[in-house]
Design a protein that fits this description.
With 427 residues, the protein is of the alpha+beta class. It has helices spanning 3-17, 22-27, 30-45, 51-64, 86-98, 125-139, 146-153, 169-178, 205-221, 234-239, 245-250, 254-264, 270-277, 288-294, 306-309, 313-321, 385-389, 397-412; strands at 68-74, 103-105, 115-121, 158-164, 183-185, 195-201, 230-232, 242-243, 283-284, 299-305, 325-329, 340-344, 348-351, 358-364, 370-372. Strand 13 (348-351) and strand 14 form a beta hairpin.
């Protein structure tokens, strides 16, 4: 057995011994663990990466148990003259080490994107948030002190707005300057999503909203369908830097993709095949994680019928591109008005039902759900999970009781007390 296969075998043995539970692996992103590890091993075997890259990631994998987030961090051209990032990354590593943050910097496989990617241990995300906030302040265009100046002038009364206008940033800034809006353009943490973020003085928020309504009317007359402005917290803004393993793998330079593909054609080992099956489909409702979500009042439960809400072309297309999330059509949304709900795979469970294939999805009651239109654009038709819940199936008492039976059995199987509410009802 090769050294680079050993970690995967260890992982499978730990699963069998109970040191890792299946639901923990799925919750922590088995696909992410697998895809990143596969890529690094494959590029090492193709002599693109040195062996040290593999060993360092293995050490981080063992230390974190797969509990990490991938963060996309942009940098300025002046930080990496001639594309050389080494000195700049030494400073970043020094800051992270000083703050006691556990991390692993992934190999830079796309120097053209002017960013590097880092895996951050999830338990250290709060500390990393403080580092990231200071880092982004230094990266501000128009002067490093602009964000601090704005917060100082407004006595910290400023808000982050996400504005659909990634292709018209210069026009937006010119308009803001004409309107005397106090603002700061924030670094774009997700280039290509169509959004751009500004820190705006609270006293100017109504001015900006009025400006955008006029712009929106203009775009509508031109036959476009502009999205709405979104309010963001600091953590929500930082979360736009999160990337899935699939996004990282797909963003690498084509020459590296070709090298990885040559290994792919050689076929996958049995351990890879076992790990790949984890986290790519909903867990059964008998899993203990189901009871945790079921008894958590901050979630609402959606009953999803596979034949009517999943089998459609739109949901299937999304699912094929993204195995870490679950997609289904929202009831009552057809044709041009069709909308698709996106839920983390670990929040969806299959329910034993002799009549049909069915799932229970748990979504946050108070947060805005992720909903996509036919073109894949993020839409804001539902202000929170409770609002979306009202679009899903409401059933009669008799049918509720019949539908509840497999759920009762699932929760009882893990020794939990089952509320009498049906699985599709909000509390």
């Amino acid at each position: 057995m090769s050294e680079t296969d050993q970690v995967m075998n260890e992982m499978m043995m730990q699963i069998q011994r109970g040191q890792y539970s299946m639901n923990m692996i799925a919750r922590n992103g088995a696909t992410a663990v697998l895809q990143i590890y596969q890529l690094i091993c494959r590029l090492h075997r193709e002599h693109v990466l040195k062996g040290g890259e593999v060993r360092r990631f293995e050490q981080f994998l063992r230390a974190s148990g797969g509990n990490y987030d991938i963060i996309h961090i942009p940098y300025r051209l002046t930080d990496a003259p001639d594309g050389q990032l080494d000195q700049f990354l030494k400073k970043v590593k020094s800051d992270l080490d000083r703050m006691g943050i556990r991390y692993h910097i992934l190999p830079d496989l796309n120097v053209k994107d002017q960013a590097f990617q880092i895996c951050v241990y999830q338990k250290d995300r709060q500390k990393f948030g403080a580092f990231f906030n200071a880092y982004l302040d230094q990266q501000l265009s128009g002067g490093e002190s602009r964000q601090k100046d704005l917060l100082s002038l407004t006595d910290k009364r400023a808000s982050i707005l996400s504005i659909p206008g990634e292709d018209r940033i210069r026009q937006i800034e010119e308009d803001f300057q004409s309107l005397r809006v106090n603002y700061s353009l924030l670094p774009d943490l997700h280039v290509g999503d169509g959004q751009v973020q500004f820190l705006v003085a609270d006293t100017d928020l109504s001015k900006v909203r009025h400006w955008y309504n006029l712009l929106k009317d203009e775009l509508l007359r031109a036959g476009q369908k502009p999205e709405e402005i979104r309010d963001m917290t600091v953590s929500q803004y930082q979360d736009t830097a999160k990337r899935s393993a699939e996004e990282y793998v797909n963003s690498i330079d084509p020459k590296y993709q070709a090298a990885a593909a040559s290994y792919e054609r050689a076929g996958k080992g049995s351990v890879e095949q076992q790990l790949e099956r984890l986290g790519r489909k909903p867990l059964p409702a008998e899993n203990p994680e189901f009871a945790r979500y079921f008894l958590d009042n901050s979630y609402v439960r959606l009953s999803i019928d596979a034949d009517t809400l999943i089998a459609g072309q739109q949901a299937t297309a999304y699912q094929e591109r993204d195995r870490e999330h679950f997609y289904c059509r929202i009831p009552g949304r057809y044709g041009e008005n069709e909308a698709t709900l996106k839920v983390p795979m670990q929040q969806v469970f299959s329910v034993g039902d002799s009549e049909r294939e069915r799932y229970i999805a748990f979504i946050s009651r108070d947060e805005r759900p992720e909903v996509l239109d036919r073109k894949g654009n993020w839409i804001t038709d539902y202000k929170d999970g409770a609002a979306l819940f009202r679009s899903f199936d409401q059933v009669t008492e008799t049918f509720r009781e019949r539908r509840m039976e497999p759920v009762k059995k699932a929760v009882e199987a893990v020794g939990k007390v089952v509320p009498k509410a049906p699985p599709v009802m909000a509390r």
